[in-house]
Amino acid sequence: MKKFIFYTIQLFLAACFMAACSGDEPSPAPEPEPTPNPEQPGRKRTILVYAIASNNLVSDFYDDSEEMLDGMKQIDPEEYSLLVYRVFRSGDVALLEATSTDAGMDFTIIKEYDNQTLSTDPRRLTEVIEDAMELRPAQSYGLFFWAHGSSWEPEYSEHTPLPLNQAQPPMLYAYGGDQTTGVSDWMDIDEMASALPDNTFDFIWFDNCFMSSIEVIYQLRNKANFMVAYPTEIYSYGAPYESVIPLVMKPDADLIEAAKETFNFYNFQRLACTVAVMDLSKIEAVSDACEKANSNFTLVKTLDLQKYSRFSYGPYFDFVQLTKRIGAKSPDFDETELDRAMADFVIYKACSAKNFSGKEIDPENYSGISAHAYKVYTTHDEYYRSLDWYKRIMNGQ
Question: H or E element: which one contains 187?
């Protein structure tokens, strides 16, 4: 309303000025109408699903592909493009597009790739993103990572294919699980960060286990406006794409409603599920509070903290609960400052009553984000100390 009144006054004064000067000079010619920018992409949004299905998730990929097509049925493919990069164990690697055919929605191949480069190689990720943006340019972009995930922990892979008789089945580290050439290969999150262009995606959605960790989120903070991820495991069925795609395939993606659909899908079945939506533009206020919490860092007891991992992963604890325990020994730390920052940063979060181990999740201590217990020495600590999050909040300790 204030803007309207301001412009109304401006127009009135301009009219009075022109009337007063009309006897001196002729009125200026009207400004020509702006012409459309021929460089403006015709599509409103292109969403890329980067799917590594060359592993035990292949049957889930087929199911999710059908869901994605169902989600695109009411969407104009001339204005909104859904692209899926997928790799199978057979070595069949291609970029597909959801298109309208005489038989209904289906995927058609728009580019094929060689299978000598693993899909967990950051060079392939960069190549596919560049292809997607060149082949289907749009005014905005979204990105789904579809595969296995395990937070920040590295594999240290050189992404070199090995003969089948040399394949070693490692733990699921970071992102991927490409078994195209016999070795189960993974992409570390610093590699992922180097492969992703800055300030390109409206959102990144990790449809993988454990990727809602502060280490992953902070490493990718400059890659998108928003992020959706799960601090715990997620069932291999993943997101209900028939509901999610229509909500995110529009100029203003409704990520909160899409996350709610995902949570409700599992919660109604009384299955474990956690999810969070983050506004990445608000993350530095969180890191400021955490830097203060760690200014007088000492190891803390973690046995009674809420834990989101199981088996040999992590352990990954609730981020806020861990930070407050560490910060209790720092005179610079203010819990209220952290709570305010988190309220702006995590714009939606939800958790089921129990986790995947059958233990209750305390909603009062559920932040939607996990964290590593800093300086609990493991074989991966050297790598952990190289991550942006550690450097940001530990003051070089």
Answer: strand 185-187
d(C-alpha 239, C-alpha 261), whole Å: 8
- Per-residue pLDDT reduced to its tens digit, 183-219: 789 999 999 999 999 999 999 999 999 999 999 999 9
Q: What is the CA radius of gyration of the chain?
A: 24
What's the number of domains the chain is made of? 2
Beta bridge partners of residue 227, listed in sequence order: 204, 278
Residue 60 has pLDDT above 50, yes or no: yes
Model pTM score: 0.88
Domain C-terminal end among 260, 281, 302? 281
Supply 139's token pair.
Answer: 């005014």
The DSSP call for residue 131 is H
pLDDT at 292 over 90: yes
Q: Nearest Cα to 309, choosing from 215, 233, 216, 365? A: 233
Render pLDDT for 79-125 as a digit per residue (tens, 0 to 9).
999 999 999 999 899 999 999 988 889 999 999 999 889 999 999 99
pLDDT in tens, 211-226: 999 999 999 999 999 9
The answer to whether the CB of 276 falls within 8 A of the CB of 310 is no
Boundaries of domain holding 311? 283-393
Peptide bond into 231 cis (omega under 30): no
Statement to judge: residues 259 and 120 lie in one domain: yes
> Which residue bears the tokens 């790739």?
113
230 alpha carbon, distance to own chain's centre: 10
